[in-house]
Fold:
Amino acid sequence: MRRTLALSIRAAACAWLLGCGLAAAQQVTLSKDSTLHTEPNAAAAPVAQLKEGTAGEVIARKGAWVQLKSAAGTGWVYAFNVNYGSAGAGAAPAAASSQRRQTTSTIGIRGLEKEDLKNATFDGKQLDALDSFAK
Amino acid sequence: MSRRSFFAVVILAATFGPAAHAASIFNVDINRAANAVKNLGTAATGIEEKDEIALGRELAGRTMGAAPLVNDANVQRYVNKVGRAIAAQSDRPDLPWRFGVIDTGSVNAFAAPGGVILVTRGLYEILENEAQLAAVLGHEVAHVMKRHHVEVMRKQAGTQGLAGAAQTYLQATGRDRTGIADKVLGEGAELFTKSLDRDAEYEADLVGTTLAAKAGYSVSGMIDVLQKLRARAGDPSANLLYETHPHPNDRLTKLGETIEPQLAKLPPGEEPPPPLQVAGDSLPAPVAGRAAPAAPGRALAQESQQSQQQQDGAGLGGVPGVGQGVRRGGAAIPGLDMFRGIMGGGR
Structure:
């Protein structure tokens, strides 16, 4: 059931993205005053100075930079200064080569907590298995 | 001055002192110099490397007692492959590095002293490309490189306590050994429930990102992961992560500031980042009874899912449904571990 659900989500996402493999154009706001540059590096010529809170659309990504389409123009801005929306599931960048985003599988699952770790007892067989994968 | 530091100084003096000078520079003993550096590291942390490794493996073994390795040889070998490429860029490339994905829906990763790094399935499943995986592993490798958790062990045991405990740990057996380890690790894997200093986390972000960059990965990987973690604020799957780390907002701000001057010097990284070689949604369903189900009845769905996947040839051919009797953290049921499928099957 989980696999079918994941496939359905993926199919829907593909349709929505107008073709799998394209990075989604994402709506973002700036968390700091930032300079929009012509190229993805700080030494490149400035296109515009943008204020904290400016909204825009990310149309490409490269390293520590994103290409932003804003009212003041299109250019490259420091990726650390970009907010993909308020905290909540799925409010994160679509990676340049995105295979699949499973935003539902781990949400709400209570997993390895403090008590679980405190109650843990040593498992030597697991350590052996771990070693075997490193060979 | 401790005996260890004394010998370290002697070795250094011999290597770089007048006696060595008289011999040609081509006769410098590289091994001696490397050991001298190692010994200085030991002197600084109060624990020999072999003991750091042993205690780290004890900690990792306990952690896997709470959440075993995911039953998929492909993903385990894959994270080792990427992890070792990152570790090779560190200043401790010869540690017995080990990487594993553990079977819990929590979003977290753990770095045991001496080089055992465990990433949760919950975290692995939200990664989209290899640069993001590299960022996570880079952060953990950086913790080991900088001996952050060794420092916690040292504080926990008191300086005399750590050196003494480390030396006796390997000689002890059974309950005695557990008791000695408990002094420095806490109960179970308690060490991993404690926060490091904020500065240690910021340092791991910076150093981890640069290690990944040197290994050829785009820094977008780390940015993506921090933004994904930010998106999970308040979600139960990220409880412990949020308790033990600075808020992702702060981590992003700090990393943005500290990495900017280095960007021009770092290799650019493959763009777009390479895809994951093992997709998160290809992992076999969690062993029933291990991860807390998101909805009632999900455990049953997982069982039939697991059977289906065994028929499809996914995973290693572990016996379906065998995991049901397994409780968290207790003594291993004799023979049961064999049927987890990890030890069997082809390489």
